[in-house]
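[Automated response] Your request has been received and processed.

Submitted sequence:
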Amino acid sequence: MQRNGSTAVDRGQVWKLLHSLWIGWTFAFGFFSWLAFAYIGIRTSHPRWLLWAAVYAAPLTLFAVFSEIWSENWTNAALSVTVLLGVVSIVHAFLVRKEYLLRLDLASRETSNVSVTSRGRRWELLHSLWIGWTFFFGLTSWIAFLYIGIRARRLRWILWGLVYLAIFASFAISGEVAGQGSEVAQVLVGLTIVSGFFSIVHAFAVRPDYLVRLENRKHAEIEDRGRSQRSEAEHESSTWARSEQSGPVVSSSTLPTTAGTSTPEETPAVTSVAKRAATPARTPAESAGGAASPAGEDRRPISVAEAYPLPVAYGWSLLESFWDPRDRYREQLRQAENMLAYLGSVSLALLDRQDYERAQIDLKLPWQGGISFGGWKLIVTRSAKVFRSHKDNPLAMAIQKLNVGSENKGFGADVAALIHARNNFHHGRGPLTEEEIARASDEAQQRLQRCMEATSFLADYPIRLVQDFDVDRRSGDFVLKCLRLMGDGPGFQQEKVSHPEVLPRGDLFLELGDRRWVPLYPFVVASNCPHCRYRETYFVDRWNDRKNVVLLKSFERGHTEEKTDISEALTALATEQEPRA
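Generated structure:
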């Protein structure tokens, strides 16, 4: 891991010294150490440093609140702890300085710092009002965490709510049990205030996770309603088709119709389903208005829904089911980020161990607090610089030729525009009226179509899910039983592929040709979603290396799942990157 600050070297010594002045707050005998860590925690959106700010502020808070009622011994003890923590904070500040500079450099290089949801700034603020319960000195913090725990169905937050409730209940009954002026009552008062301060930091730390989980629930409810509506429409369509095949019933109020014409009484639902059934799968070239292949060419345009890898094909196919411009625009922006997340995950899988340092990619940084759209672009951009030397890897060379770092023309310009559009949409600066949203959706669709055309090479590198294996007695090769995850599903082609070595069951692999298979684990994995029970493909969205937990997000529906084995694999990979003494 690059703990030597190589990511920020090109910024120069002046830049590093300028952004290290916050350490000066720690030299004020512990009275302002909390301010230093609060500053760097807010600048880099790193909750761990915010929690340290709460730790350093705790004794100072107790001293400020109880200095008049405490005895001299308690007051001196609080001051001693404050000064001692001040000395510790100085050492702590110098230890985290390099990591802070790395995080600050990564954040400043991103072209976008988008929100964690696709609902917009107003929606996020509305569903963050529960944080207000934590501002009442610890008296009502338990309400906030019980609320979000029940709303998001998160047991951990419910338990935290019970902890804050227990502290409040102890404070409430301490006056009657131990007496108003007793030392026990004073300690419980201080504990309640400190827990209230902690709960404020805690609430802001879990807010992004809560908003993501709440949005996933909303998406799941909308998708379930849409699925039921489509099922009803398809049932009506099949019923109508069977009645047509059996022959119309002619009465005095019904006129016979000629073949090939539809009756005026045909319902809109039946019409839309019939049209979709009769319309062939659209290709990027056809969607963008491109002409068909010239006569004599036997190569037809590639259908995204049929030939692209599942993580890209599913979202593209899903766009056809959205009729509301706002919902369609939101899904287009999500599809754009998924496309770049897939390219970024594949790029990380293609990099050799020694390439991470050359690409200046520190695995522990991009996923802290949740990776953004701009973060994926940065990963692809830095990986592409290394791919110039991978002449024997056709997929790496194809990603490098995308030139995603260029914002003037081609694929890079379209990606930059989509990042800008999503940034504005998430922060409430996007289109507002229905006409503006419709125009923005049309523009986003055109850019997405061009991006799909530029990434058509993805269809040449199939994803295979290894399900089982056997041994060929004659050749001694292994026969892998795989699912070919190409197209939007749900049915995938089963294959038996001869391979010189056995591969782990349940893992995903990219075939580069000549029997070269690249493992996508741990960057892209397949798993049965605990929410919808379907098999989905996931990418790494967030990594808490201290708690050894990775939050995965599915390409298909945006569902999330926590995994510890992925965290262990990333930790092992990051350990291999650390420079040896």
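Summary generated for your ticket: Residues 6-219 form one domain. The chain is about 55% helix and 10% strand.
If you did not submit this request, please reply to this message.
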